[in-house]
Design a protein that fits this description.
Chain lengths: ~1000, ~140
């Protein structure tokens, strides 16, 4: 084996892995289809297994050969229909596949691997059926002969290059091969059965001329040894054996028909024979597929019963085939190339067995592997990575060039278009290289069929895995990283989610559980959806567990939303194995799953309905190499924040800073839609000294302000005191001098907050400046700075400077964000608010009862009203779309309740109506009422629920009438925030 | 007798050298992006033709003061690990016979001994030979 070197073996290992990759799903499909299995799949598995066997024997990996040989035999029995691909048999094969994979993983010691167990199991299957094989009646001979006869000899006429094939009679093929040099042309007679065998083995076939006086001597071998050596590389198909070789010598030349697994680029080296003594005949030979029926080899009673697969039974192979070699008496006329007349097997079948259902087209699948070879080439990942890097640099270079060119483009406009061209080509290059890294998810998904099957058997559950979106492509690295978390999720689904068949039946569910694995594109991301119809996650038990583990306290537990409760499952404390097995929901290592997904730049969401099932959604970026990021600035430095972490951007206006930012214990928080958002300043967490330009001197002076909340501490003693509108006004009235000291310049006193998501919590990152979104290429950090938790990497910006990529999780950790403090505060406030509402609702109050539409009743506390007026419609002045009334020499805007609340419109045709002028700090308004009914003392219970609109405290029955109680403070806020109303204010006459 | 070539450079008043085989290039890319919370000797990152290189302040590394950047300041980019050493100024390539290299003295100025590979007596000055490997080890 002189040509063997590591490279070829490596190649063999890679190819074998590919084969195994395809064998496994095929085996599973065989199992599923059982008796109805199509020969196409069997053949595919068989071929793959055969390639492994062939190559391994060639390299001398005997254990591998023996094992794959037995497996091949089992497959053969499937093909013959002697064995059914039932669960037990497929099991044995799958275990074999595992062992083969194990051997291939460390191929050089594969001979030491013990595979007795697998072998015994496989042999048992074979033996168990040997009787049946023997019983196989040699019937149908008649029929088969009939069929064979239908192939008239003249039908075969194949011409390809130096090879031509004819059929002198129904049982033989004649292979004529023009010799490539001085040798005589060869003519080989091949019995029909040989061709069937040869076609179905899918080897590479060669006709070899051997000069007995030269070639063996050249190799320092005796003729016999020479032939023995040839047999190492393949099999002879024209009857030559080391012992019989003498009789085949003709004019000192032997013509040898070799079937080998070696490709035509290797064969010459392997055989140590010159290329011009070898003719590769596959191109012509495999055209014979159209003329022979390879399924003829397989035939047996069972098959005929099914009436679909079998067309012919085997002929008895003649015991003594006399391989003949003859020189054609005269050179054949070279016929013009034409389509060989195709006699499709289906045709034969119809002719002979008219009752047989035509179903399969074996010839197509035989040709399949040939078609594959030209479609792709193997490229090392390393090379692609390098290309990827270079492409990234090209993009950077382009960006820098574009920046530099901007100034000169005006002088030479051609540069602009040129730059555009280069730019678009660069983008395309990058895109395509990126695509090279993309792989279909199918590669990963297929694996799960096996896993689901194995686990289902282990747990005695019945589960069907439904996979869609195999064709969706993702970056190779991401796919690799997904394997673990997805396996974990599927295991969880099967272990904790899907119930046993009995239980399912009892629950009225279908006996077989379903797990759906679905991949699809959405919003520039890839979504993977894992759905099961099992029992779902038991939130109550999760909460119980979380309480027991001290992750949450009981107070918090009662306040948690359903979704929050479910997401408890993602917390590390809830995940250690033993703790979780008592949770009937899920939970084993879900935090690890989540971490894994997040490391891939992805995002995990859960949804579950008790008794119905669970939905896990994973969102992933298409690639890791380039990530869309938000560029922010802090003190002249720029930082990139990956978009996946960014929830939203908030601008807190200078005048709102005091209103919206406050301090809870040590941390600053921003009030954002009823919630409290902990704030971190990027400058502070990174220890960057903040500077501001002293307006007096123009110098850069370190900013000594410790926190944003400090802005108002000069004015308020108690930071927790609720800030009223009045106080706010005070601030804006501060002398200018003080303003200047507190703020760098007016614009910058607005605060930019980037809301980042870390796990279940959000926090706000205060940055000095917001720049564009950019696609950045991630550069890893050297070991010297790996320890900096706050950075995920570095990148190079368009101007060539390096910018650091911020890591949201790291920043939250570094600044010791205590979300629970904030949560507690939030809860406290909610309760306070509730108490207030309760107090209001229970309090005995004097109220004013009025109507908007005639039959809709409203109430306001008397003490919130400063005045009531009765007016005529004539006294209303209309400016634009708004109504005003002259009131103490000011234009008093009229507010119609129906403009701001979901209620029936104010009646139009009304002679006189009323104005209610509430007590407010400033900005007088008048609420319009169609009628004022009464004032009264009441202790009505006011109902407030989720459906209650903003601005309404709630509703209750006052003297039998359903009445809405206005929350005047809230309602005024709604009015002030309404853009229409704002405009009103501007129209002060 | 074989000779060794050293890239020589100045740190404060010390003339130091690093085996030329460890040096990829010398440049004056001084647009350094600081990395917060990094070890004190890390000055930051520079962009070297599309790759990021970690710049170490050799002064701090050797136990001296941080370097002040002047027009003479240079980066010595090492072949391994994408690390650069920031030095005050760069000198000639010095070729010395191997046997001229003396073991490093127990104490030499303020430079920490662990980074020294030996010293060579040149005509006018001592050349302190530094070990690139130990300088970039953590």
């Amino acid at each position: 084996m002189t040509v063997l070197d590591k490279n070829i073996i490596d190649e063999f290992v890679i190819e074998s892995r590919d084969h195994l990759e395809s064998i496994e799903p095929d085996l599973l499909m065989l199992e599923q289809e059982g008796a109805n299995v199509s020969t196409e799949i069997i053949n595919r598995v068989f071929r793959a297994m055969h390639s492994i066997k062939g190559a391994s024997s060639f390299f001398g990996f005997t254990s591998l050969t023996s094992l794959s040989h037995v497996m091949e035999n089992v497959l053969m029995k499937f093909r013959e229909g002697v064995l059914l691909p039932n669960t037990e048999n497929i099991d044995a094969l799958l275990i074999g596949v595992d062992k083969v994979r194990y051997m291939i993983d460390d191929i050089y010691v594969s001979n030491n691997v013990d595979f007795n167990e697998e072998l015994t199991r496989l042999n048992k299957i074979l033996e168990g059926n040997s009787e049946k094989i023997d019983e196989r009646p040699n019937t149908k001979k008649e029929e088969q002969e009939k069929i064979t006869e239908t192939k008239s000899a003249s039908q075969v006429n194949i011409q390809h290059g130096p090879v031509s094939i004819h059929m002198p009679d129904s049982q033989h093929f004649l292979l004529d091969v023009k010799a490539p040099n001085n040798f005589e042309d060869a003519s080989i007679v091949l019995p029909y059965e040989y061709v069937i065998e040869m076609v179905s083995r899918l080897l590479n076939y060669y006709v070899i001329w051997i000069d007995v006086n030269k070639d063996p001597i050249h190799q320092k071998r005796a003729l016999k040894e020479f032939i023995v050596n040839l047999e190492v590389f393949g099999q002879c198909y024209n009857g030559i054996t080391p012992d019989s070789v003498e009789q085949y010598i003709k004019n000192n030349v032997i013509v040898y028909l070799l079937g080998s697994i070696l490709g035509d680029d290797l064969i010459s080296d392997a055989l140590e024979l010159p290329n011009d003594q070898i003719v590769f005949i596959d191109k012509a030979f495999y055209q014979l597929v159209d003329y022979v029926d390879i399924t003829q080899k397989i035939s047996l009673p069972e098959k005929i019963k099914t009436q679909s697969k079998i067309k012919l039974t085997n002929t008895t192979i003649p015991k003594n085939i006399q391989p003949t070699e003859q020189k054609p008496t005269e050179p054949k006329p070279i016929e013009p190339k034409k389509e060989p007349e195709i006699n499709r097997p289906e045709d034969i079948q119809v002719k002979v067995q008219t009752e047989t259902v035509v179903k399969q087209k074996p010839k197509e699948d035989v040709m399949e592997p040939k078609a594959h070879t030209t479609e792709s080439i193997r490229v090392s990942v390393e090379l692609i990575d390098r290309l990827m890097n270079l492409a990234g640099e090209l993009v950077l270079g382009r960006n820098q060039l574009r920046k530099e060119l901007e100034s000169v483009v005006s002088k030479n406009p051609k540069l602009g278009t040129l730059m555009q061209d280069v730019g678009s080509v660069t983008s395309e290059i990058q895109e395509y290289i990126m695509q090279m890294r993309m792989q279909p998810l199918g590669n990963l998904f297929n694996k799960f069929t096996r896993i689901v099957r194995d686990i289902a058997r282990m747990l005695s559950k019945e589960v069907e895995l439904d996979i869609t979106g195999k064709e969706v492509e993702l970056d190779k690295t991401i796919i690799e990283g997904l394997s673990d978390p997805l396996t974990h999720l599927i295991r969880n689904s099967m272990d904790h989610g899907i119930e046993s068949p009995e239980e399912r039946l009892r629950l009225g569910k279908p006996r077989v559980g379903t797990i759906q694995l679905k991949a699809f594109h959405e919003g520039g991301q890839v979504n993977i959806l894992l759905t099961d119809d099992g029992r779902g996650i038991d939130r109550a038990k999760l909460v119980e567990k979380a309480l027991a583990n001290g992750i949450i306290d009981s107070e918090r537990a009662t306040k948690m939303s359903e979704s929050e409760k479910m997401h408890l499952i993602l917390l590390p404390g809830l995940s250690t194995a033993e703790k979780v097995t008592d949770i009937s929901g899920r939970g084993v290592g879900m935090d690890v799953v989540k971490t894994n997904v997040e490391q891939l730049g992805g995002h995990l969401e859960l949804e579950s309905t008790m008794g119905k099932g669970t939905n896990v959604r994973i969102r992933l970026p298409l690639t890791l190499a380039i990530i869309p990021s938000l560029i922010v600035g802090a003190n002249n430095l720029r930082f990139a924040i990956p978009q996946v972490n960014v929830q939203e951007l908030i601008l807190v206006k200078a005048q709102d800073v005091c209103k919206r930012i406050e301090k809870i214990r040590q941390s600053e928080v921003l009030r954002l839609r009823e919630k409290l958002l902990p704030l971190i300043s990027v400058a502070k967490v990174l220890g960057i000294e903040r500077f501001y330009t002293d307006p007096a001197t123009g110098e850069e002076v370190p900013d000594r302000r410790k926190s944003y909340a400090d802005r108002r501490q000069a004015h308020f003693k108690d930071p927790n005191k609720k800030i009223s509108e009045k106080n706010d006004q005070d601030i804006s009235d501060q002398p200018k001098r003080e303003m200047g000291q507190d703020r760098r310049k007016s614009l910058q006193s607005d605060i930019n907050v980037v809301v980042l998501k870390v796990g279940m919590n959000n926090f706000g990152l205060i940055v000095d400046e917001l720049f564009d979104n950019e696609e950045i290429v991630v550069k890893p950090l050297s070991k010297h700075i790996k320890e900096c938790k706050c950075f995920a990497g570095a990148t190079i910006m368009g101007d060539g400077r390096v910018a650091m990529i911020l890591d949201a999780t790291g920043i939250a950790e570094m600044s010791n964000l205590n979300f629970s403090d904030v949560n507690i505060e939030e809860i406290r406030r909610k309760e306070e608010e509730e108490r207030r509402l309760r107090a209001v609702s229970e309090h005995r109050e004097s109220i004013l009862l009025f109507t908007n539409a005639i039959n809709e009743f409203f109430a306001l506390p008397l003490d919130s009203i400063s005045r009531l007026e009765k007016i005529k419609p004539e006294s209303i002045k209309r400016i634009g779309i708004n109504d005003f009334m002259d009131y103490r020499n000011e234009a008093l805007p009229l507010v119609y309740l129906d403009k701001y609340l979901p209620i029936t419109p104010f009646p139009k045709d009304i002679d006189e109506f009323y104005l209610i002028i509430p007590k407010t700090q400033d900005n007088l308004v008048a609420l319009v009422a169609s009628n004022i009914l009464d004032t009264m003392e009441t202790n009505v219970h006011i109902r407030h629920d989720k459906a209650t609109p903003k601005g309404i405290l709630g509703s209750g029955f006052v003297e039998g009438k359903l009445t809405m109680f206005l929350d005047i403070q809230e309602f005024m806020k709604i009015i002030y925030n309404n853009p229409l109303f704002q405009r009103d204010k501007g129209v002060n006459p | 007798m074989s000779t060794v070539q050293f890239v020589s450079f100045v740190i404060d008043s010390n003339l130091c050298g690093i085996n030329i085989l460890n040096v990829r290039e010398i440049n004056s890319v001084l647009d350094i992006t600081p990395v917060q919370h990094a070890p004190d000797y890390v000055r930051g990152l520079i962009n070297l033709r599309g790759q990021t290189v970690t710049v170490c302040d050799l002064g701090v590394r050797l136990g001296l003061e941080p370097r002040t950047i002047t027009s003479e300041t240079k980066n010595i980019i090492l072949k391994e690990e994408d690390v650069a050493l920031l030095v005050d100024s760069i000198g000639d390539v010095v070729e010395v016979e191997e046997d001229e290299i003396r073991p490093s003295p127990a104490n030499f100025g303020d430079i920490e001994r662990e980074f020294m590979d030996g010293i060579v007596r040149l005509e006018s000055q001592l050349l302190i030979i530094l070990s690139a490997k130990r300088l970039i080890a953590i």
